[in-house]
Amino acid sequence: MWYGVFLWAAVSSLVFHLPAALLSLATLRQHKMARFMPVAILLMSIVGPVCGGVLTSAAIAGVYKAAGKRMISLEALVFGVGQSFCVLIISFLRVLATL
């Protein structure tokens, strides 16, 4: 049950980070040091779901298991994409707070 939520979180995280990596690759390719920024962005698209996504997916699955409910694929999609969307919103709000 947790695996479905985790996979959707990982895929949606990659979908959110891939355009940012491509944009930074296109704009920073001439820079001496910043040309490696797309690698860091793509690594974060994998490391984030592996570290935090596994824990939150297991917590969601634990609640479903304790309630005795069965999770359908659409619910896994909603929870997985919701996790990535929450991370995206929190990231933007954290950057705006420093301005």
Automatic annotation (TrEMBL):
Provide the protein's localization.
Endoplasmic reticulum membrane; Nucleus envelope
Q: Which InterPro entries match?
A: TMEM170A/B/YPR153W-like
Q: Which domain of life is it from?
A: Eukaryota
Question: Which positions, given as ranges, span the membrane?
Answer: 6-28, 40-64, 76-97
Record flagged with keyword Thylakoid: no
Does the keyword section mention Transport?
no
Q: Which UniProt keywords apply?
A: Endoplasmic reticulum, Glycoprotein, Membrane, Nucleus, Transmembrane, Transmembrane helix
Membrane topology of this protein: Multi-pass membrane protein
CC terms in the record's Gene Ontology section = endoplasmic reticulum membrane; nuclear envelope
Among Pfam families, the record links this protein to: Tmemb_170 (PF10190)
Q: Which GO terms are recorded in the biological process aspect for this UniProt protein?
A: endoplasmic reticulum tubular network organization
PANTHER family in the record: SD17342P, TRANSMEMBRANE PROTEIN 170A
Q: Which family does it belong to?
A: Belongs to the TMEM170 family.
The protein's name in its UniProt record: Transmembrane protein 170A
Taxonomic lineage per UniProt?
Eukaryota, Metazoa, Chordata, Craniata, Vertebrata
Q: Which gene is transcribed and translated to give this protein? A: tmem170a
